[in-house]
């Protein structure tokens, strides 16, 4: 029986012909990395290959590693297998990984979204025979509003809070979501302050996008200065001693999970804005159709429901287990410096 071009094993997604892994979750000799979130780029590999704009991100998170940066569409060969990276639109530097060998083409998406957020290089469909897709939000209930409408709500919320004399504290992951928020906040309303983890990552990315001026919250920044302004913080800051400096404040979370009111209540958040760096239901379906793939492998998320639906539509669809956690697991892989910055 012919061995599939890519297989899932205990270390990750493995290409036996090239002896290389894609986004492995255990240490390997050679890894091709789709993007910088902690569940996709792990420490301990001997060699990393990724898009060049992701290089400073994973170096910041993982320290000194042996890494090669590639351009979009640049082909490279490993043991006769042809690889290339293509925009995934998820966050800055996020890639789909195309693998071609003996006329067979597979594409691994990593995480991706179809809406152009104005920060990441927009998603581009890549034709293939087999498509490995995440389905973090693989339910019809997930239907995103256009980004412009969401930011109109966010900026309106901030403006009202300022009029009420309260500080706006908006939670978003330090890599990806935070920069998207910064890019589209209306800074005519007030100043933007940042948690140390957010500021550290944004400093790494400032030369890759146009972000507004921000002020890191340190012990020298007074409660009076912050009052009425916007604070961007990671979800881990909620309920911490750090946030007490913002009183009186109102909290909000920007996440696809804010679709469900129960998620907001469980997180004790005052307001939820539905804003995800992943595809919604329709985005997943349109992406798969554009690849013209016959086989689809569904990973992390609503895999069983989504793969069953695809099978009903005529696809050869199945699921595979991974250690990728999608938007539920993009919590911070903090360095000691970042931890210190939060104190």
From TrEMBL:
<keyword id="KW-0540">Nuclease</keyword>
<dbReference type="InterPro" id="IPR026360">
    <property type="entry name" value="Xnuc_lig_assoc"/>
</dbReference>
<dbReference type="InterPro" id="IPR036866">
    <property type="entry name" value="RibonucZ/Hydroxyglut_hydro"/>
</dbReference>
<protein>
    <submittedName>
        <fullName>Ligase-associated DNA damage response exonuclease</fullName>
        <ecNumber>3.1.-.-</ecNumber>
    </submittedName>
</protein>
<dbReference type="GO" id="GO:0016874">
    <property type="term" value="F:ligase activity"/>
</dbReference>
<feature type="compositionally biased region" description="Basic and acidic residues">
    <location>
        <begin position="331"/>
        <end position="343"/>
    </location>
</feature>
<keyword id="KW-0436">Ligase</keyword>
<dbReference type="GO" id="GO:0004527">
    <property type="term" value="F:exonuclease activity"/>
</dbReference>
<feature type="region of interest" description="Disordered">
    <location>
        <begin position="321"/>
        <end position="343"/>
    </location>
</feature>
<dbReference type="InterPro" id="IPR050698">
    <property type="entry name" value="MBL"/>
</dbReference>
<keyword id="KW-0269">Exonuclease</keyword>
<keyword id="KW-0378">Hydrolase</keyword>
